[in-house]
Design goal:
six-stranded antiparallel β-sheet; 2 helices; 6 strands; 24% strand; elongated
Length: 160
């Protein structure tokens, strides 16, 4: 008799645990779907922002139909004006971008920013998530060079 009562209690507990597990899985799956929809929305927003950035670069008077590439998103830590020696052995003024996530510095020579507008824009974006563009990526790697800088769209908090 006691064994039968014990088995009933055990079966009831197992049933409750199974219901809890099923509910948890369904709830987690719902959160996963919300997160997926959220991420897709952010990705579409970022693609739209990238398209606008490329269009803005194409409207630049110095643009001559070169391929434009967008960099990865990083947090801008510092903007520094520096000198460097170019491939012709000339010393040129440059603007260097430093990021939180990588030690690699991106450079842009002053010849591409004669009025300083791009440098001032970069300075206004310190501490923010940004991406940069580069023209002629076969010559100028998007990891080491930049031609323009843009604020990345904010990622909204994960849905609850």
């Amino acid at each position: 008799m006691k064994l039968l009562k014990y088995l009933k209690t055990l079966i009831t507990l197992i049933f409750i645990l199974l219901l809890f597990a099923i509910f948890s899985i369904l709830s987690w799956h719902g959160q996963e779907q919300k997160l997926s929809i959220h991420n897709k929305g952010w990705e579409l927003n970022f693609e739209n922002t990238q398209s606008k950035a490329i269009k803005e670069d194409e409207d630049d008077p110095l643009y001559n139909g070169e391929k434009i590439v967008v960099s990865a998103i990083h947090t801008l830590k510092r903007v520094k004006k520096a000198k460097r020696v170019n491939s012709k052995g000339q010393t040129v003024n440059s603007t260097w971008l430093h990021f939180e996530e990588t030690p690699i510095v991106r450079k842009m020579d002053e010849i591409f920013d004669l009025d300083g507008k791009k440098t001032r824009k970069a300075e206004s974006l310190i501490g923010k998530k940004v991406f940069t563009t580069v023209w002629k990526p076969e010559t100028y790697s998007a990891i080491e060079w930049w031609r323009n800088i843009y604020e990345a769209p904010a990622q909204h908090p994960t849905p609850q």
